[in-house]
């Protein structure tokens, strides 16, 4: 994918899979699905519980990766990795609302925010600066079979 295409794809609404090194014994990296925010040219934003394993591992590592994919043909994915450049603690209300509204319709987002207000107040927001990108777009490959 071109730089423009990969950034547009990542900015589209997908559930991402966050990956971070897990040094606890002999373990593979921790991989967990997450809601994320991204604007082309900007930082990847991931909100999570302040005391979660995910947050602890991201703090220890100082970096993480995120993969977003299109789950129907023609398949596409964007994977990005980079350093954490900021942590908002607590999450600014506008950012919390923006993430909820990215993934939920307005009525459901408002209900979600209200119902989870207490839990969400324990969240932090990681800012990751994209450093390495990996992408694939199988559109041209799929077109050969149509």
TrEMBL record:
Q: Name one Pfam family in it.
A: Pyridox_ox_2
What is the top-level taxon of the source organism?
A: Bacteria
Coiled-coil residue windows: none
Q: Does the keyword Oxidoreductase apply?
A: yes
Query: InterPro entries, per this entry?
Result: F420H2_bilvrd_red/Heme_oxyg (IPR052019), Pyridox_Oxase-rel (IPR024747), Split_barrel_FMN-bd (IPR012349)
Q: Which N-terminal residues, if any, form the signal peptide?
A: none
Q: Which terms are listed as keywords in the entry?
A: Oxidoreductase
Q: Does the keyword Lipid biosynthesis apply?
A: no
State the protein's name: Pyridoxamine 5'-phosphate oxidase family protein
In which organism is this protein found? Streptantibioticus rubrisoli
